[in-house]
Amino acid sequence: MAINFLRIVDLTRLSEPNVGKRLADDIPLWSSIGKVNLSSSYERVRNRADLERLFQRILERCQSQGEVPILHFEAHGCRERIYIGESESCSWSDFLELLRAVNVTIKNNLLVTMATCKSAWLSLSVAPDRPCPFCLLIAPIDDVSIGEVEDGFQEFYRTLLANYDMNGCLGALNARVASPGNAFVAVDAEELFLGVAKAYVEKLSSGAARRRRLEKLVSRAVVGGITKATPLPSIRKQLRRGLWDDPDIHLKPLFERFMMIDQFPENAARFKFDLKGVT
Fold this sequence. Notes:
Layout: E1 5-10, H1 19-33, E2 39-44, H2 48-65, E3 69-74, E4 81-84, E5 88-91, H3 92-105, E6 111-115, E7 136-140, H4 146-163, H5 166-174, E8 184-188, H6 189-204, H7 207-223, H8 232-245, H9 248-258
Parallel strand pairs: 1-2, 1-3, 3-6, 6-7
Antiparallel strand pairs: 4-5, 7-8
Helix pairs in contact: 1-4, 2-3, 4-5, 7-8
C-alpha cells in the first residue's frame, strides 16, 4: 500500500500559535513540485470525544476509499499521556488503541509523526502480544519548542515530498533541533518488537514464571488425558525443555501477530523474524 494522504491533527489550545495550520497550508505547494503527490487535511480537535470521532472517520475512509494516511499530531505531551484542548488528556495506552485500529485496517502501513513533547515514550506502552499500532513513528524523546516543531516539520515534509527519503527527512528534522537531547527518533515496527520482546523474554525467563507456566501445561496434559499414554515425568521433561531451550516457540507467533502476518500473509515478505538482540 502506498501512502496517499496526510492528516494534520491539532490538539493544542485555541489560544496557541496555529503551527499545524501553517504546515497544512504549505503541503499542496511542496506536493505539486515534488515527486510525491500527497493530499492533505487539517483537523482541529478540542476534546477527547472529538478525537475519537475523528479516528472513526479516518477508519471509515480507509475502509471505503482506500485511504492510507500519515497521521501528524500537534499537541502537548509528557511521558504518560497526550493532552487535548484546554483541559483533557488521553493516556498513551488509550492513544495507541486508536492508532492500532487504523494500522490494522491498512495492513501495518501507518506512519505517525508527533510534534509533541516526550511522545517517543508512548512506545513503552506497546505490548508484544497485540498488533503493532504503527509501522513507523517519528517522535521526540524530550521537550521541544514551538519553533523547533514548526521549522523541523516544515523541513521534514518538504524533504519527504521531494524524494520520499526517510533518512533524509529525519536528518532535516533534527537539524532544526537546538539540543541533541531533544532529537527526534524513528521507531519502526520491527525495532519496536525487538525492544518489547526482550522485556517479555526477560519476564518469562524468570525461574518463578517458568515454573508457573510449566505447571499450567502439565495440568492441561493431565486434564486432557495425555498422561494415560505417556508417563507424567516424561511429559514434564519435554515441556520443560521447550520452555527453557526454544524461545522461538513463544516469540514467532507473537511476531506474526505483531506484524499482522497472521492476518495478512503478504506481510511476511516485508517483516522477517529475527531474534538477534533478544535472546
